Amino acid sequence: MRSKNVVYLILILGLLSVLNLTYAQDAPEVSEKGKEVYEESCAHCHGTEGRGDGSAAENLLPKPRDFTRGLYKIRSTESGQLPTDQDLFDIITEGMPGSSMPGWETSLSANDRWEVVAYIKTFYDGFKESETPPRQISLEGKIPYSEESVEIGKGLYTQFACFECHGQVGRGDGTSAPTLQDEWGFQSWPANLAQGWNFRGGNDIDDIYKRFIGGIAGSAMPMFEDPAFGLTIEQSIRYNELDNKVEMTEAEEEEYNQLDEKMGNAFEILDLMAEGSANEEQKQSYATAMKAFYEKSWHLANYVKSLSSEKRPEPAIGKNVLRSQYTESDLPQMMDAAWNTLDSSYFPLVGQIIIEPRQFNPTIDSVNAKSFYNDTEVAFLFTWDDRTNNTEVEENEDTGKTFEDAIAIQFPVKIPKGPTAEKPYFLWGGRKAVYLWQWKASAVDKITELTAKGINNAEEQEVQGNIEAKGEYTDGQYRLWVKRTLKTDDKKDLQLEPGVFVPIAFSAWDGANGDVGTKRVISSWYSFVLEPVPSSRRFIYPPLVALLSFGLLVGLREFVRQRNT
Amino acid sequence: MKTKMLTCLTLLLACGFGLFVFADSHEKEEDMNKLVFSKEKYKTMAVKSGGKISGVVKFDGEVPEMKKLEITKDKAVCGVTDKFDEALVVGEGNVLKNTIVYLMDISQGKDFDKEAKPELDQKNCRFNPHVQIIPVGTALTVLNNDKATHNVHIFGTSKNNTSVNKQQTKNRKKMRLTGAKGAEGPVEVKCDIHGWMKAWVAYVPHPYFAVTNEKGEFTLEDVPPGEYKLGYWHEACGTNNKEPVTVTVAAGGEVKQDFTLKLKEAK
Questions:
Q1: Cβ–Cβ of B195/A228 closer than 8 Å?
Q2: CB pairs A-B closer than 8 Å
Q3: Does A454 reach chain B within 8 Å, measured CB to CB?
Q4: Model confidence band, residue B114 (pLDDT cutoffs 50, 70, 90)
Q5: pLDDT at B20 over 60
């Protein structure tokens, strides 16, 4: 009896394996391994069926990719084309900066990553059915980076209407930015071009160029089109000049009309080309126009490249700590040129994910700071990028509820003695209290001093004084100037003296990103120091030491020589 | 013994069937907001003494006030006219504009009007028309009558038609977008630069489609005699994919079929 049961079991298992076999035959290139790796490493965000709806997806923005529609943002291929396998492999390997997608280079073997590529492709039939490989973007005719090229690119930035979303100076603060959505209806912020290290597909000039030509599929970023198609760069600039004139002379009008006609013809040919009905002559002029378009795009790529540093700046620790510079005169006001003589210290920010409500999708990358001090006062200049200027709580049907933008600068009340001494808890203190400067976008000239013993345990100080502030929002950036006396009479305030390293930390709120209360971006403790006044002794001691060591060396040499003889 | 074997087999079959049904239902959920096309390839033929199907689509329910759209930018161009959310346009007598009415299961009939050139106009930052049908393979001409830059973003949801997102600056008055490869839709059209600009296009495989006008009227002409399933789609009211109306068209006859639609249930 039992043996018969075993036989049935084998029969059932056999049947099941046949079913499996049929599946395997349908997609022979896909292995069990790819599925296994996918389900272990990818499915939590991207979902077991590849719909971008894994259990973690809810908390993420940008959302995990939905693989079922074949729309991939980062491609080396032309608009409307699928990505190459290498494109998919590269994204898995390197991750997508500025999003939740990590690079898997160290945690998955190259072999596993390729298996996953094959598996991901099964979610979209288009991969199987396309008979020709996707058309790749040609990098031919690349224009090397130069100041001149950047300058031309800057002009084209306006003409190509990039500012509509990316803003006048490229901080992602264009007037269309707040309403942008992807094809799934999720909010989709335009890139802050001044923070190239957050570009999802990398910030090499080639990467930037590929995003122009190929578009970013599924997002609001369109495939580029030359707004002055058929015109050379010089003609484009001229056309724009004339277009912006309030009144044109007769000669100018004629010139304008000629250019306009040339452009109209080129656009017509563009349509004919797309329909495959252009004649030889038209094909020729199309090729010429496209060449000019590619040139323009390279200049534009060079310009975008110029807007940000090559890499994310080094954070303000070690040799990069914020050093307040001594000056004998009055401290500079907010817009004074003196600030330009200092380098910024960079304080990276991350989402606060320790205490509910959390911020999993931060939009503020960092705060930059500079500082001067004199015998009685210290002044700081803080800057941080925020795509929108929110000064009040607003309820919007399309974009949801938004709050007020704000920042808080945090110090300990008592400076820990020595670098190893315990600091207050970095999240607005705990047992040890912190001293805070809080500033809000609705009252730009006001700064409030707080004392806190925990993120939900802060109170305004009774004595507010000895402190001034001025804030401003322009082109996607907040600029906050704060000045305080070095010493105050209030025991709850931080007291400052030169040469002492002071812990400093930040909290910031982007109201448009739903930041309010504990939902915010934060930093850990960094340091700043009032750089001690350079003493005139530096001209005496170092040369003296050098002289002494030299003498010692000479003596030593003589000593060795005499011993040897 | 036999019973055990049978039980096992039944169990197996049930599992398989369950999986099948489960996989299928997932897909259907999405299809509820789409048009239905016959699986057979549409064949064109000369239609003699065809019939006519016409009617009026009405709205049932409290008519909400049309939401005025907030013009957030380019006010000099876009702010010239007031714009409203056109998801539900109800006229006097509760007639419903912008409803697609069509034959679901027709597989042969007349050819498309070859002269027709579908156009989507952008004027004062509004798309016009709000809903339109485009024969598969036919190019859509997009006009820019604004001194403003638009981007024409047509969502694609199938493997035949991936999304199109092309910039149309103020310099380009006219742009032809090559036709979709397969029947699909309706799909959304958006201008991301002016986030309030929305429209719908449906890529259709045969000419028996109509969009209701201001009076809620539709007409399908030259329908070969026979029995058909009559379907509708409306942006805010959804479809009747689950229970289409069956109409019988006699040679040279005219069938009247009205519809009364309610708002889709909010998810």
A1: no
A2: 109
A3: no
A4: confident
A5: no
A241 shares contact with chain B (CB less than 8 Å): no
- Please state the pTM of the whole predicted model: 0.85
Nearest to B165 among A165, A215, A398 (CB): A215
Whether A8 and B149 lie within 8 Å, measured CB to CB: no
Q: Report yes or no on A11 lying in a domain.
A: no
Q: Give the type of residue at A460.
A: E
Q: Residue type for B8, please?
A: C
Let me know if residue B16 belongs to a domain: no
Q: How far is the alpha carbon of A269 from chain B, nearest alpha carbon, in Å?
A: 11
On whether the CB atoms of residues B57 and B214 are closer than 8 A, the answer is no
Segment A110-167, tens digit of pLDDT = 999 999 999 999 999 889 888 888 999 999 999 999 999 999 999 999 999 999 999 9
Query: What is the per-residue pLDDT for A550?
Result: 86
In a domain, B23, yes or no: no
Q: Reduce the DSSP state of residue A459 to 3 states and report it.
A: strand
If one counts every other C-beta atom within 10 angstroms of the C-beta of residue A221, the result is 26
Q: Do residues A277 and A397 share a domain? A: no
Q: What is the value of ipTM here, to two decimals?
A: 0.80
Task: With H, G, I as helix, E, B as strand and everything else as coil, classify residue A223.
Answer: strand
Q: Please check whether residue A426 lies inside any domain of the structure.
A: yes
Are both A112 and A57 inside the same structural domain?
yes
**Dihedrals phi, psi of A326, to nearest 5 degrees:** -80, 140
Q: Hey, is the C-beta of A70 within 8 angstroms of any chain B C-beta?
A: yes
Per the rule left: phi > 0, alpha: psi between -120 and 50, beta: everything else, B93 is: left
Return d(Cα B49, Cα B222) in angstroms, integer.
7
Partner-chain contact B164 A4, CB within 8 Å? no
pLDDT band at B13 (very low <50, low <70, confident <90, very high): low
Using CB atoms, pick whichever of B152, B159, B171 lies closest to residue A227.
Answer: B171
* Number of structural domains in chain A: 4
Q: Please give the Cα distance from B171 to A95 (Å, whole number).
A: 38
Contact status of A183 with chain B (Cβ, < 8 Å): yes
| A264 contact B CB<8A | yes
